[in-house]
Amino acid sequence: MENVMKFIKLACAGLFFCVGVYFLLYGINTYNRSLTTVREKIKDDEIIYQQHYSEEKFVTYSELIATLFQELEYDMEIDGLLISKYEHQAEYIINYDIEVSNYMKSYFYDSREKLTRVIYTRMN
What is the pLDDT of residue 124? Predict the structure, then answer.
């Protein structure tokens, strides 16, 4: 009788363990499917977040330098000097020889009308 009770306890414990493992695997599978769906939606939309762009056409020297201290989202061109968003670092700003002046801001789009470069031209 004592052995039968031990067997029943072990069988119940084994059953609970198997049910727990099943729910763990089911949860992992559901999580992976959800994550895959979200990644596909983001890839289709190509928009993770939206940023407000200033509509002002004119930018001061201070605003331009402040922009360079941040991580660049697009390539920049300042008076013909192309600054790649991949290679830019804040330490390089002193080497860019940017004139103290106001700048006119314009945008360059590729064939799919995707913004690829922000162009700053010095105003005389």
Answer: 72
Instruction: Extract the tokens encoding 99.
Output: 């004139």
- pTM, two decimals, is 0.53
Three-class secondary structure of residue 75 per DSSP: strand
Amino acid 44: pLDDT: 66
Structural tokens at position 81: 């000097």
Asked whether the beta carbons of 103 and 122 are under 8 A apart, the reply is: yes
Distance of CA 7 to the CA centre of its chain: 55
pLDDT of residue 56: 64
* Whole-number Å distance between alpha carbons of 41 and 36: 9
Predicted pLDDT of residue 112: 82
* Distance of alpha carbon 25 from alpha carbon 94, whole angstroms: 55
Query: Who's near 119: CB < 8 A, 6+ residues apart?
Result: 76, 77, 105, 106, 107, 108
Structure tokens at 78: 């300042």
Tokens (6 digits) for 12: 């119940």
* Low-confidence residues in the chain, pLDDT < 70: 44-56
Residue 117 near residue 81, CB atoms below 8 Å: no
